[in-house]
Amino acid sequence: xxxxxxxxxxxxxxxxxxxxxxxxxxxxxxxxxxxxxxxxxxxxxxxxxxxxxxxxxxxxxxxxxxxxxxxxxxxxxxxxxxxxxxxxxxxxxxxxxxxxxxxxxxxxxxxxxxxxxxxxxxxxxxxxxxxxxxxxxxxxxxxxxxxxxxxxxxxxxxxxxxxxxxxxxxxxxxxxxxxxxxxxxxxxxxxxxxxxxxxxxxxxxxxxxxxxxxxxxxxxxxxxxxxxxxxxxxxxxxxxxxxxxxxxxxxxxxxxxxxxxxxxxxxxxxxxxxxxxxxxxxxxxxxxxxxxxxxxxxxxxxxxxxxxxxxxxxxxxxxxxxxxxxxxxxxxxxxxxxxxxxxxxxxxxxxxxxxxxxxxxxxxxxxxxxxxxxxxxxxxxxxxxxxxxxxxxxxxxxxxxxxxxxxxxxxxxxxxxxxxxxxxxxxxxxxxxxxxxxxxx
Length: 441
Known about the structure:
By secondary structure, the chain is mainly α. Helices cover 63% and strands 4% of the residues. The chain has one domain. The protein is globular, with a radius of gyration of 22 Å. 46% of the residues are buried. This is DUF2029 domain-containing protein. Keywords: Membrane, Transmembrane, Transmembrane helix.
């Protein structure tokens, strides 16, 4: 299997990822051995990582943080809820099972160990960023690692109390491996899809030109991984359990934190509270009903369809014109995640985790371009605003008309999410891929 390592050029201050073969060693020596960091950089970044996580632990220890989700994991695994966790893909719950096995069926042990598990995942990804040979420069590697360390503080408790961290990090690792081991990257993306479903749309970033063997190999590995894991789940837990996340998604209404629900939430908070009702639905989330909700759901359906059209169009362009590059895939992955979040009927607090790992990899590849830097700052700001909404002022959103601070935070966060989607779309559309000269993988 022959590879070449590609470097991008920066054109007119924007990230133009024009791919040219670089005279560098093969990927086996590049992957984790040619980090551009100096020893002092590593020490400083590790100090930064520990400082950020000590701040996070301090906030968790001194602030009343809801533990409903993680206690729900524990209670479901202990058998208190017969249909507990069936809304999650079966493989997505395996980390929760592993932690449960070592918790001695103790709630307190489980809470502590689950948080520790998440921090280990966080730390391992940090190690990959520090040691990756994909960084364009020493500065970009420092920026990427520094961003990832502070991202945990900005996201708060969801970074150590939600299963969503695992598929998000797998997507980040898959992004790193696009540069060296595309087949392994494809397998990781397939695994992430079986854990949380949403990474499946990112498979379009694996599509190269139709004349290239790598196109068919990568898609085959991605699909084969999904088929293999699906068969494993069906054998262990049954076909019904394999399909349960899909039936669960079909009955969801408009969740109160979603972008589409924002106008109704704002209207309810400022004078029209009597027109809207927020209830805890069978979907295990708070949903809003009232004037405009049906229209908002229709808008989400249209936006989701538009997201899929964009994804297919991007893949077809790469397939016909052979415009694929790993950096181009990073751009479209970030863009698609933003589009999914804007189009979704649901925007749970932990969904912001989807963005962190892939953004860290994007920063690893930038030389100061305006697009990724702007998106990184927007992500951190949205993460902080997400904490204001949940858990600190969530009652303002759940009970229309009782308070405004949480609603204002929600409106700003969701407005910035739309802005971020537009910025990422501008970045993707303005991306000018060069003729692809890379060898088949």
